[in-house]
Amino acid sequence: MKNLLLFFMICYSVALVAQEKPTLFLIGDSTMSDKEDPDKNPEHGWGQMLPELMTSEINIQNHAVNGRSTRSFIAEGRWEKVKEQLKRGDYVFIQFGHNDQKANDPARYTNPFTQYRSNLEKFVRETREKGATPILFSSIVRRNFNENGVLVDTHGEYPLVVRMVAKDMDVPFIDMQLLTEQLEISYGPQDSKQLHLHLEPGEDAYEPRGVTDDTHLSKMGADLVARLALQEIARQDLELKKYIKKSVIFQKILTEASVGEVEYSEKVPWRRALRQDEQWYGSKEAQRIADNVLLYQHHNGGWYKNNDMSTELSPQEKEELRRLSGVDAGTTIDNGATHTQLRYLAKVYKATGKEEYKKAFLKGIDFLLEAQYPNGGWPQFYPLKKGYYEHITYNDGAMVGVMRLLRDIAKNKEPYTFVDADRKKKARKAVDKGLEIILATQVKVDGKRTVWGAQHDKKTLQPAKARAYELASLSGKESAEIVRYLMEIENPSEEVKRSIRSAMQWFEEAKVMGKRVEWIKGPDLPDGRDRILVEDPDGGPLWGRFTEIGTNRPMFIGRDGVVKYNLDEIEHERRTNYSYIDNYAEDLLNIEYPEWEQKHTSQK
């Protein structure tokens, strides 16, 4: 009887395992990893797109992490965490190489034919020991076209080693190097920028200083790369094919036609309007958007924020905008307003030579010059609007975005060479005054320079309160962008150098380690998701968006204006719609500042 009961228990357990969904685990680097706030963050990993492209019959866990090589992924215990969860019937996508190449970094570098190969073999062998299926992927290519328009490889022997391991160990192999090479070439040297991160300064809240990144993917690029990977799995008729949505399998992505030809006739969203090739700015679509920009411009030369300049407007809407242009509804530099429109107009004017765009641009520059305080700062709104809008505003890169534009004009950079000498002189003076106020507002605690607040009082120059959940504090996010701006100065004074070094010392002292920010999903959660802060021995560095002056403790503040020290103590709506803690200065601390310091130390 006992034996019979045991038999049924075993059968029941086997049935439960059989009913359990398989899990697809992803291990790799930033080109595959998930990113925070996927609807806003311009950088995406292709693995991030898989949940939308595969059926609900399979679970997906993305363990890929920015900056990891096979060596560091193993050394940090990340592979052990994945291996502990593996069960029979699961799958593991394995894609490394970008960071294994970094010969100057002993924590990440691996020799392709020795340690790199050995690590790949370890992943494959230990996956199989758990009864799961490994699938090897070569790295995606970088957008690296030479002067002749030829895409040049940057990965050396690493993709070859992946092929060798796949062949020798009889592992399914997805040649992402080939697939993404074909994708880049089909788009061409210019239009392939859409697949990556090409942002003008002030265009994006996550990258307010602008970025040219030909390694990482835009949301569009990540989606296309994910679809190509899944289509190749289907083409090879791998078992995983049954979990791929049919619409993905049969979609045609790679075509002989140049995508650039389609782009000129398609509508371009405002978010991407500053990321087109030079020829596009002379197109009808570019001019249609530029005409909208003119309609949204107020009589004083500025713009309001959060208006989509690319929206197709009816005759009635256009007439209403013309009527409202003389109404003081508020003109601002918040959320990229005004300096973003001006950058766009300059590009279209250069391509078309149409005087109305030049006239509007110069009017906008006059607005920015007039809006500057005598002490060098810029308010959020001008003409001045009562309240926190009068503060000197660093929040969301507002003032830094204006200064970068004026600096480019003062240096006679393209496409601003048409600006007259008098305005260039005024722009140079405005930038110099702006630098003075940046240095003057760097907060001192016990006589020691630290960083900056999101906004500062225009008279006392001290950090100031804005909305109820934006209290006077030191800001990790805004301060990182200010330091980046200071590091862009070609011949910095000793005072600027001292400011940068003091700020970086603060970033080192104020960093939060052993924690990570995580998005969780669930049907019982409001809006189906939540943002939490979890303990993780490998987590960090993180910095508070609002950091308590004197203690350097991250502050979490809800709409009640009460300071909390734990993210989960404030309301769900604020947690999911506002960034209170993140790795704002990680690249600054680990990469950008050391390079700057080496450069300026060697110049002594």
Task: Specify the CATH class of the largest domain.
Answer: Alpha Beta
Q: Under the CATH scheme, which architecture of the largest domain would be assigned?
A: 3-Layer(aba) Sandwich
User: Rounded to an integer, what's the Rg over CA atoms?
Assistant: 26 Å
Specify the CATH homologous superfamily of the largest domain.
SGNH hydrolase
- Let me know the number of strands: 17
Could you give the distance between the termini?
87 Å
CATH fold group of the largest domain: Rossmann fold
Tell me about the biggest sheet?
A: 5 strands, parallel
Model description:
The strands form 7 sheets. The protein has a 5-stranded parallel sheet. It has a two-stranded antiparallel sheet with strand order 6-7. A two-stranded antiparallel ribbon has the order 8-11. By secondary structure, the chain is an alpha/beta fold. It has helices at about 1-20, 50-55, 70-75, 80-85, 110-130, 160-170, 175-190, 220-235, 245-250, 260-265, 285-295, 315-325, 340-350, 355-370, 400-410, 420-440, 475-485, 495-510, 570-575, 585-600; strands at about 25-30, 60, 90-95, 135, 175, 195-200, 210-215, 390-395, 445, 450, 455, 515-520, 530-535, 545, 555, 565, 580. Residues about 10-20 and about 255-265 have low confidence and may be disordered. The protein folds into 3 domains: about 20-265, SGNH hydrolase (Rossmann fold), CATH 3.40.50; about 275-440, Glycosyltransferase, CATH 1.50.10; about 445-604, Glycosyltransferase, CATH 1.50.10. It has 20 helices and 17 strands. β3, α5 and β4 form a beta-alpha-beta unit.
